[in-house]
Amino acid sequence: MTNIESWTGERLETFVYNENTNEHLHRYALAMQLVRGKRVLDIACGEGYGSALMAGIAASVTGVDIDAATIARAKEKYTGNSITFLTGSVDAIPCADASIDVIISFETIEHHNRHKEMMQEIKRVLAPGGILLISSPDKLNYSEKPGFTNPFHVKELYRAEFETLINTYFTHTLFMGQRSFYGSMIAPITSNQPAAALSVYKGSYEAVSRLEMEPVYIIGLASDDTLPEFNASVLDGAEVLKMQYEAFRIEVTKDAVAVITKEIRSSLSFRLGYFILSPLRLIKHLLHG
């Protein structure tokens, strides 16, 4: 059951459709490549949609969150033999030693300052050869450059700090960057490779899947000489989206003002005031000829 009234704007809920939605769904799309047939822990699972997505292919999924009310709603909303929801914290995970094959922790670490304790707990519950998939905002690009302060974040890490933390506890690591955008993608295609050499995903709160690139437009490049190579590329459409929003906002404002003006002019109080002030308008007209 959705609890819109108590929503703070920080936790992603399934009634929310925005940039944050795409970011989280994309992360869970990556997670789905790791969890098939595995014992999975979704630490700081929130309302549980990600845990439910993974439970469709995992051997088992345990969703853990520190907020008891959120866990209670998750238990009501998502049921099944392969999914369990528990109340717990990142520095006291309610799972047995070496009982988890894959740990998912998205946008968790910045909400507390017990990072060492969190990593120790992750290592404790992770089985030998297990995998951690974890995300964190980069303090430089998330907060400092845009001049943004998230009141729900306790301790954000710079990229180097985050990488150092993970490298301290794991022998092999791989780091990826993520940036949300609304824009255009252009990728090379050939007759024997209709899909781009670039992973693209689509999804909703009910399902996420890989999307084969089906180009709406074909761009040709031709010459009798050697052609340059082109890599897959994207155009970040954030600026266009902002302009679109601004234009929409202006039009909506104009429409709203027009409606309000019409309603005011048709009201009894306006017509009465207009009648009372008629002599003053006549005098003004005569004085200014």
TrEMBL record:
Q: Per UniProt, what is one Pfam family of this protein?
A: Methyltransf_11
Give start and end of each Methyltransferase type domain: 41-134
**Name the record gives this protein:** Class I SAM-dependent methyltransferase
Transferase: present as a keyword of the record?
yes
CDD domains (alphabetical): AdoMet_MTases (cd02440)
- What's a single GO BP term from this record? methylation
Q: Which UniProt keywords apply?
A: Methyltransferase, Transferase
For this chain, one GO molecular function annotation is: S-adenosylmethionine-dependent methyltransferase activity
The species is Flavipsychrobacter stenotrophus
